[in-house]
């Protein structure tokens, strides 16, 4: 019912109801730096105050003295925190000593105003604008929270960090780390108050999972976790509010694909999804309260492009008498007609302005200015299907997106994507394009999701040229790095009992230099050089399930993997990077023959499944023809009947996984070549023989071929 500028995550709140009136005011901060506060009267937004534009607002929180209404408004903008009263009067302007912009903020009032602020890697605690505590995190901080002091009797800040860890602090020190299943993007107190103990926090991850953890003084207790079976978007915001009116607060969740969810606690243990609603763009903030009409609660969501949308418990239909049809209430009808009038007025205004622009552009002195527009993008690796999701969201409708890549990648099908894709042919010369695809979007599409799969060992850049439906035509280019080991994902631990191959590097390089090489090779490694003298990272290959352990320090690095191809790629890329910087590397390796057999056993079930799927799909047309000729299929063997029954699912799955079989063939071929490369033997002439054996799909024969060659 209202639009402001483009909004960031967690920048909209409801002020507590004041006086006799039970309805609440809405306060929202946008990326133009404007804070807008308004109420709703008779379905219309009534402004309370609006500030002047400034730097982008990254967070908005409410505060106030203990046991009083939390109605002071705090915003983080750049490296500054500003405070406003509920009437819009500024009472605080605090310029912190942070060199970067504030990304996350939490406000508490204990003896004074406590501000918990986070830039990318740095956490600071200020009390009454005086620096109290400081902590340097190992990876990017996405959100910060503090347990309620009145319940736990001490200040316990919790940082949600990109490396799938919640860091619990005490003063300037790390108390302990809590491992979670995905990169946590948002934290909230359970029930809005931390539960009975005050120690319960709810977290949401970028891969769409939600969990509850009890943060005790010594160790964490995992209570429950909701997976993401429906493959919905990442979690951006969480609130607790009793929207069903049953006396128990429900969990309200906003996702980056525009899905709003309400979970309730039917049994005391795990939450159950009671309601969901799809909006057209990502939900940056969510709140439960009473805004529009006294006595009717609603859920308010602020979306990326600045739309504020309310879902109300007020019945839209008025019950008629006996035999009368249900009619829309008078108020709702007048609201719809006023919206129609407003829309017509806006359309007229747009036409007039467009004509004015066309006329002025004919003049020789006219200068066409390029309109600025905001693009919200996310490029992440999905563990489930080893593919990358590229999500592009624009504040206005997208006209088309051109995707260009200088490395071989596969474009996979996305159900939610209604855009029409067309491919252009690419040059066969080296260093030219491998992919040129154009997505033409339907009218009013502001969000586009693409899925790609890369090939490990082939690295380069993927570029997206985003053109929205605005005049004059303008385009923004976004770049994404496809890394040499692009299908690897960070993990907390690995299985040390597997047969491992080791690559050892020694040379005159600094800790920062070898760290920059690892950042170049692998995703999900923080760009900042880690504190301390040595570091270990664990990874898992999302496609095959093989693993990698990397440990390095100044002058030496050790890389262990059960997949020889991973070691081979690292050896090639690291020596190339060192040569670029004229650093002499001493490279040695220890190859474990058993690891090849182990990797083949990991790949084989996937290979068998894909070959069977391909065979079934190739049979579908012939079986359908038989069905038409014979009239029925009772004479067919049960396995052929089941292929016909499941034809749609089989075709759907096959369509979703183009080139899957070729990828597996490629990986086994690479494994074969890499095994003998480390022995100094070139076996490329034997590859056709290997492919024949792969078509036969015999695991023992395959292992025997590897060993006999």
What is the CATH third-level topology name of the largest domain? Methylamine Dehydrogenase, Chain H
Q: Round the mean pLDDT to the nearest integer and report it.
A: 89
End-to-end C-alpha gap:
70 Å
Radius of gyration: 29 Å
How would you sum up the major sheet?
6 strands, antiparallel
Q: In terms of structural class, how would the helical and strand content be classed?
A: alpha+beta
Distinct helical segment count: 10
Strand ordering within the main sheet:
40-42-43-44-41-45
Any guess at the CATH architecture of the largest domain?
Answer: 7 Propeller
Kindly list the characteristics that best describe this protein.
six-stranded antiparallel β-sheet, five-stranded antiparallel β-sheet, 709 residues, 45 strands, alpha+beta, Immunoglobulin-like, Methylamine Dehydrogenase, Chain H, 5 domains
Concise account of the structure shown:
With 709 residues, the chain is an alpha+beta fold.
Describe the protein.
Residues 593-706 form the BBS7 helical hairpin domain. One of its GO terms (biological process) is intracellular protein localization. Residues 371-480 form the BBS7 GAE domain. Residues 329-356 form a coiled coil. This protein is α+β, with helices and mostly antiparallel strands. Helices cover 22% and strands 39% of the residues. It folds into five domains: 7-227, YVTN repeat-like/Quinoprotein amine dehydrogenase (Methylamine Dehydrogenase, Chain H), CATH 2.130.10.10; 230-313; 375-480, Immunoglobulin-like (Sandwich), CATH 2.60.40; 488-591, Double Stranded RNA Binding Domain; 594-708, no CATH class. It has ten helices and 45 strands. The strands form eleven sheets. It has a six-stranded antiparallel sheet, with helices on one face. A five-stranded antiparallel sheet has the order 35-36-33-38-39, with no helix packed on it. Strands 1-28-27-26 form a four-stranded antiparallel sheet, with no helix packed on it. Residues 319-326 have low confidence and may be disordered.
């Amino acid at each position: 019912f209202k639009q402001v500028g483009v909004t960031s995550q967690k920048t909209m709140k409801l002020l507590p109801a004041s006086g006799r009136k039970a309805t609440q005011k809405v306060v929202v901060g946008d990326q133009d730096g404007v804070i807008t506060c308004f109420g709703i009267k008779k379905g219309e937004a009534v402004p309370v105050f609006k500030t002047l534009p400034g730097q982008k607002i990254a967070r908005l929180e409410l505060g106030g003295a203990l046991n009083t209404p939390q109605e002071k408004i705090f915003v983080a903008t750049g490296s500054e925190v500003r405070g406003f009263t509920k009437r819009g009067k500024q009472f605080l302007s605090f310029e912190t000593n942070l060199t970067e912009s504030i990304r996350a903020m939490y406000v508490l009032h204990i003896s004074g105003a406590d501000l918990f602020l986070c830039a990318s890697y740095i956490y600071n605690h200020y009390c009454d604008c005086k620096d109290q505590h400081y902590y340097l995190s190992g990876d990017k901080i996405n959100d910060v929270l503090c347990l309620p002091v009145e319940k736990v009797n001490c200040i316990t800040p919790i940082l949600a960090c990109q490396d799938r860890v919640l860091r619990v602090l005490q003063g300037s020190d790390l108390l302990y780390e809590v491992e979670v299943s995905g990169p946590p993007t948002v934290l909230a107190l359970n029930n809005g108050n931390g539960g009975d103990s005050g120690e319960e926090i709810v977290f949401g991850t970028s891969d769409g999972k939600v969990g509850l953890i009890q943060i005790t003084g010594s160790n964490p207790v995992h209570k429950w976790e909701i997976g993401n079976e429906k493959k919905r978007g990442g979690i951006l915001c969480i609130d607790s509010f009793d929207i069903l009116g049953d006396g128990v607060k429900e969990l309200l969740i906003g996702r980056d694909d525009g899905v709003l969810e309400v979970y309730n606690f039917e049994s005391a243990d795990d939450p159950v999804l009671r309601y969901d609603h799809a909006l057209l763009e990502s939900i940056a903030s969510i709140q439960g309260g009473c805004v529009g009409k006294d006595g009717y609660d609603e859920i308010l969501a602020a979306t990326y492009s600045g739309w504020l949308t309310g879902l109300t418990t007020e019945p839209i239909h008025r019950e008629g008498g006996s035999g009368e049809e249900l009619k829309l209430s008078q108020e709702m009808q007048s609201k719809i007609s006023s919206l129609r009038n407003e829309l017509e007025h806006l359309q007229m205004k747009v036409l007039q302005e467009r004509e004015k622009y066309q006329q002025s552009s004919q003049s020789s002195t006219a200068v066409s200015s390029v309109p600025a527009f905001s693009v919200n993008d996310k490029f992440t690796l999905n563990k489930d299907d080893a593919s990358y999701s590229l999500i592009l969201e624009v504040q206005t409708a997208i006209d088309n997106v051109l995707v260009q890549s200088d490395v071989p990648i596969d474009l996979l099908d996305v159900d939610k994507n209604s855009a029409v894709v067309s491919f252009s042919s690419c040059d066969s010369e080296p260093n030219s394009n491998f992919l040129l695809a154009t997505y033409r979007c339907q009218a009013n599409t502001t969000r586009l999701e693409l899925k790609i799969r890369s090939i490990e060992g082939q690295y380069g850049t993927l570029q997206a040229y985003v053109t929205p439906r605005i005049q004059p035509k303008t385009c923004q280019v976004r770049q994404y790095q496809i890394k040499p080991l692009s299908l690897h994902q960070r993990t907390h631990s690995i299985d040390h009992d597997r047969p491992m191959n080791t690559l050892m590097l020694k040379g005159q390089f600094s800790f920062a230099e070898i760290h920059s090489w690892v950042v170049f090779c692998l995703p999900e490694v923080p760009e900042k050089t880690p504190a301390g003298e040595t570091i270990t990272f664990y990874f898992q290959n999302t496609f095959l399930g093989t693993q990698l352990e990397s440990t390095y320090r100044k002058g030496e690095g050790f890389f262990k993997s059960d997949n020889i191809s991973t070691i081979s790629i690292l050896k090639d890329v690291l020596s190339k990077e060192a040569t670029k910087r004229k650093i002499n590397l001493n490279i040695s390796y220890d190859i474990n023959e058993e690891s090849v057999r182990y990797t083949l056993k990991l790949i084989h079930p996937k290979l068998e499944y894909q070959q069977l799927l391909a065979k079934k799909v190739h049979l579908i047309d012939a079986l359908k023809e038989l069905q038409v000729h014979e009239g029925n299929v009772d004479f067919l063997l049960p396995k052929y009947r089941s292929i016909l029954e499941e034809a749609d699912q089989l075709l759907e799955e096959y369509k979703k996984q183009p080139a899957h079989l070729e990828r597996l063939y490629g990986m086994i071929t690479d494994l074969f070549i890499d095994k003998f490369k480390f022995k100094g033997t070139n076996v490329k002439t034997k590859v056709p023989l290997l492919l024949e054996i792969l078509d036969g799909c015999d695991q023992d024969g395959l292992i025997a071929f590897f060993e006999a060659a």
